[in-house]
């Protein structure tokens, strides 16, 4: 049996060890999350009520993040260099300015040859040691490019080449949400980019960035957050819950409801039984599906649960995401998807972090870069005052 045979299952299966873990660590949290979702369900029993609440939450997230009204978008001044061509795709190092003096850094993957119309997929990463250089994320990005889309994997603040400010700073959420919005501006400005086919996916903290972006930016047309969506856990990092985005004027919410704001756009939730996403098939997914049902779009939300696996973006979690994007972004699968439902990774080249370095002797960080935590934090704080 392949993952395709079970993708619509709503009831997960757990090993004995998983059941013990689930009971021991989840007893108190599931009760809290379940009660919270029951209260939220009562607030949006019609499409009209949900649309009104969604607008309040969207404005609240942006306001508490210091991004309301939305700041003026300044020139991106992108630099793309160091092209490496492999079988069916290419990788380039890229950076751009999300605000004057602050540079977002990443790896731009492109299909080779370039089609006449190209979908785009943003790939923010989570709190993994190598960030966007993790082999799992390189496989994700390279495969999506081989399937015919641009894939942009970009650094969280304080990771890899993004060293102008520490990751654990009080405005990290604001920085990363704004960086994601501007990253979307970047990829939609690429040659032949198709604005009707826009994806976002990430695991763990990357999943948070993906569903947060989709909640506030309707340009995202399909979302795939992995091992993240929870009704009782906000992320555990200052970059996810360091600003009071879950409670503002006229609302109190959680990440499950924020993920529901993607409705009716297609979304797949990927979970495992060894982290806080363990209840997703029986708790968060049914809650989110109710919001899709308000639009008659219950078939646009999917859930794939993998018992017993680690909190990472491994092959079994990537497989349903590849299929999801293939269907909703109309990507190519011939020669990449195997008969058993697995995906061919042999054509992917895993590069070293050195090869993926954005700032080099030939392309140093510009002298106009803001220097130090205080300068960067002050620049982002000023966005809320404009």
Sheet with most strands = 9 strands, mixed
What Rg, in angstroms, do the CA atoms define? Answer: 20 Å
Write down the overall mean pLDDT.
Answer: 92
Output the structural class. alpha/beta
Cα distance spanning the termini: 56 Å
What is the tally of helical segments? Answer: 10
Number of structurally distinct domains: 1
Give me the side-by-side strand order of the main sheet. Answer: 1-2-3-5-4-6-7-10-11
Helix content: 25-40%
Return residue spans where pLDDT drops below 50 for at least 5 consecutive residues.
Answer: 5-18, 20-25
CATH class: Alpha Beta
The portion of residues forming beta strands comes to: 15-25%
CATH architecture descriptor text: 3-Layer(aba) Sandwich
CATH superfamily: Alpha/Beta hydrolase fold, catalytic domain
The count of strands amounts to 11
Molecular shape? globular
Itemize the secondary structure elements and their pairings.
Blueprint: H1 16-42, H2 47-64, E1 79-86, E2 89-99, E3 102-111, E4 118-124, H3 135-146, E5 150-154, H4 172-188, E6 193-203, H5 205-216, E7 222-226, H6 238-241, E8 247-248, E9 251-252, H7 255-260, E10 267-272, H8 284-293, E11 301-306, H9 315-328, H10 373-383
Parallel strand pairs: 4-5, 4-6, 6-7, 7-10, 10-11
Antiparallel strand pairs: 1-2, 2-3, 3-5, 8-9
Helix pairs in contact: 4-5
């Amino acid at each position: 049996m392949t993952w395709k045979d079970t993708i619509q299952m709503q009831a997960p299966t757990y090993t004995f060890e998983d059941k013990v873990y689930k009971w021991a660590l989840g007893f108190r949290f599931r009760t809290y999350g379940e009660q919270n979702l029951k209260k939220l369900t009562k607030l949006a029993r019609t499409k009209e009520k949900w649309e009104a609440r969604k607008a309040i939450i969207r404005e609240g997230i942006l306001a508490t993040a210091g991004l309301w009204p939305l700041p003026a978008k300044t020139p991106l001044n992108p630099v793309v260099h160091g092209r490496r061509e492999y079988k069916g795709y290419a990788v380039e190092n890229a950076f751009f300015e999300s605000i004057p003096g602050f540079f977002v850094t990443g790896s731009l993957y492109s299909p080779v040859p370039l089609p006449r119309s190209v979908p785009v997929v943003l790939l923010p990463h989570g709190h993994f040691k190598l960030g966007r250089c993790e082999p799992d994320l390189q496989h994700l990005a390279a495969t999506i490019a081989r399937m015919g889309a641009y894939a942009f994997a970009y650094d969280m603040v304080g990771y890899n080449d993004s060293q102008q400010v520490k990751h654990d700073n009080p405005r990290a959420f604001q920085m990363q949400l704004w960086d994601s919005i501007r990253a979307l501006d970047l990829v939609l400005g690429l040659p032949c980019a198709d604005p009707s086919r826009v994806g976002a996916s990430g695991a763990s903290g990357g999943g948070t960035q993906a569903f947060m972006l989709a909640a506030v930016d309707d340009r995202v047309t399909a979302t795939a957050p992995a091992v993240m969506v929870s009704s009782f856990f906000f992320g555990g990092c200052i970059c996810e819950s360091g600003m009071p985005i879950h409670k503002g004027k006229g609302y109190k919410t959680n990440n499950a409801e924020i993920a529901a704001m993607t409705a009716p756009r297609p979304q797949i939730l990927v979970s495992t039984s060894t982290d806080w996403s363990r209840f997703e098939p029986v708790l968060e997914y049914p809650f989110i599906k109710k919001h899709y049902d308000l639009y008659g779009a219950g078939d646009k939300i999917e859930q794939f649960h993998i018992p017993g696996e680690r909190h990472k973006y491994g092959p079994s979690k990537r497989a349903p995401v590849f299929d999801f994007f293939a269907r909703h972004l109309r990507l190519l699968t011939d020669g990449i998807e195997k008969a058993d439902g697995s995906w061919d990774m042999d054509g992917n080249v895993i590069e070293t972090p050195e090869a993926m370095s954005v700032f080099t002797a030939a392309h140093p960080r510009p002298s106009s870069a803001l220097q130090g935590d205080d300068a960067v934090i002050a620049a982002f704080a000023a966005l809320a005052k404009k």
